[in-house]
Predict the structure of Major facilitator superfamily domain-containing protein 9.
Amino acid sequence: MSDHTRGTLFLKPGGRRRIIYCIYVVGFMDLFGVSMIIPLLSHHVKSLGASPTVAGIVGSTYGILQFFSSTIVGSWSDVVGRRDSLLTCLLISAFGYSLLGTSTSIALFVLARIPVGLFKHSLSICRALLSDLVSESERPLVMGHYNAASSVGFILGPVVGGYLTEHEGGFYMSAFTCASIFVLNAGLVWMLPWDETLIQCRETNSSNNPRNCCHDNHCNKSAQNGSHANRKHTLTGETGARKRLQWRQVSPLRPVWRQLTSVGTRIRVVFSSDMWDLFLVRLLMGVAIMLYYSNFSLAMEERFSLKPKTTGYLISYSSLLGALAGFLVGPVTQLYRRNMAALLLHSTILTCSLIFLYAAAPSVWQVLLTSTFFAISTTIGRTCITDLELQKGGVQASGTLIGAGQSVTAVGRVLAPLLSGLAQEFSPCGPPSLGVVLALAAVALLLVRIPKWDGAGTSKAAGLEKTRKSE
């Protein structure tokens, strides 16, 4: 049995497939509901009497809360399990969007954004759950399909939201519809066949103490709660590591102080690790991509006299390609023989080149060409960097790692508008030109650091193993 297979999740026939497909549906509906609301938020807060400055401050509230909560909630999902954390996030987000549907003042609007900013991490937990469910070799393919399903929801949502806003009270109707979608998602998650999940844990010949295998003094754990599925324990001894399969339900009622201690320990281990290079590449490329899109409509109008309607078609075309590109991740990964570091380097170089070609484009047709390949390269790059983070950090802390990545992305969302505004003072091509510089820095960092990645994941995974044993 291969190492990939030994660490994966065991289900009754069809159980794993049903869970994966249901998570695809949850991802689609999640972004479908959210994208109904996002385009309407700025208009609604201004209709409540907010000045542009106040509207900007209110709009940044969500990003700031996401920055602080992403890693914490992701780590919490590692501690209490995927099901309970996912249900909590979905239901609290539904409450936040319901509150948004009753917001008749700026104060109530801000209040409604707080629970959403703190607990809207359902997509990250779904990704962590998928990484629990599949082997390392299957992970890029499954993640690509999940990203594609979510992106389709993000494309269709604004269409429905725009239709609803044409009616009286359209914003409030959209908010309550979004809240209903999150409640529906919570019901779907509740009905998933969690009790069909069985985690395989291995024990070495060198020790008969089950504490050396899994935390909480148990060798094996039922994945009714969905966490710690891809556990990889080091096997010492040639003749053998033996396997024991047992059923056990994970109690979600761990003491709060113990949960907080476990969360803090995991976060400290991740941020004291040698994964700074991956997080920095994520930040640089995230800001570069945001700069590409930051003034896209304005630049198309000033450079090529395109009407907003035509620019909208171009953006929709790029978004659709980005969704479809999710299905290319698996075949491209196989083409590279799962050399994710090389694939990340090449996709980063391609993205950098495409941003440069867009900034220097003499015609709309060149912009169309760059948009075509840009959507593909960025989709593959995002999947690569997530997969590398899980490889180096170990999937036993997938929630913490994915949450930390989202926190880094949130920093980029704060920096990108500021840098874009400064760059536009010089030229409409200023933001993408600055994006080229940042992407080049990411390429240089990868060229320096990739040769040092061999074996880097071992020490990190060992650190997290110690963390689990000490809990």
